[in-house]
Amino acid sequence: MTKRIIYQIDSFTKERFKGNPAGVVLNADGLNETQMQNIARELNNSETSFLFSSNDSSHDGKIRYFTPQKEVPTCGHATIAAMYAKAIKENLDSCILNYKTQIGILPFEIIKDEDDYQIAMTQGKFELSPALDLGKRQKLITALGLETSDLDDRCPIQIASTGHSKVMIGIKSRKKLNALTPNLNDLANLSQLIDCNGYFVFTFDSDDQDILTYGRMFAPAIGIDEDPVTGNANGPLGGYLVENKIVDYKGDIFEFNGRQGEQIDRLGKVNVRVKIQDNKASLIQIKGHATVIFKTEIEI
């Protein structure tokens, strides 16, 4: 039996009980997959991250992510939470830590600001699939409870990924976004057909000059009916907007803030930064604040 330190962190916010909650196990060495899955199921956040020490000079440690139902290759808000918890526990100065994930070794930046921290995560390689065919597109629209007239004509329905793919669905109205009551069973079934378990519905209908988009993300196929604030949706959204020429930018950087969680009262903000080369997204980073809800220990 070993004592494990567990944090509950709200990511992409400085206000408790907002943003996206994640569990963090800082000393996960020795845990097996069944134990990690049980901890994630017990905490019942959309994801829980597990930090392992490094046995290789090429990286500073290893990180794994579990939903209440299964392991996933990467997770934005659970990375923000993990690095925030580590920074607090170890009283770190600003630094970059290279962590091994299922999608490769990624740099995570800890930014110390007086007595607090922001965390920036470099995501995996950006990939954009062709638009869904008409049949799958119609199944998706119906499952979400949308009409074709609700869609933003500038925005093709495509799967975008920085390591954990999401379907991008642009719509015209924030009111419609917040009124969505999707058929979760139909979305889960569709995930098997398109090999993508997340659906990110977004709109440019914002009344705040600092906020470009509002979004909601549904992933019932992996046990997440609705994710409050999703790094692995807002990040790929940046690449999607660039490569579809939906947004203007100067030079080789496109940066914006996305807001999510409004309808479920877990509002949070993700800063997205896209580096561009030859009109393609060459690197995507997300950045956000976090706050501790509780810290505890278990023996397992």
Automatic annotation (TrEMBL):
Highest rank taxon of the organism: Bacteria
Protein name (database record): PhzF family isomerase
GO CC annotation: cytoplasm
A GO term for molecular function: isomerase activity
Family, per entry: Belongs to the PhzF family.
Location of the active site: E47
Organism of this sequence: Ancylomarina salipaludis
NCBIfam families in the record: PhzF_family, PRK10281.1
Keywords, alphabetical: Isomerase
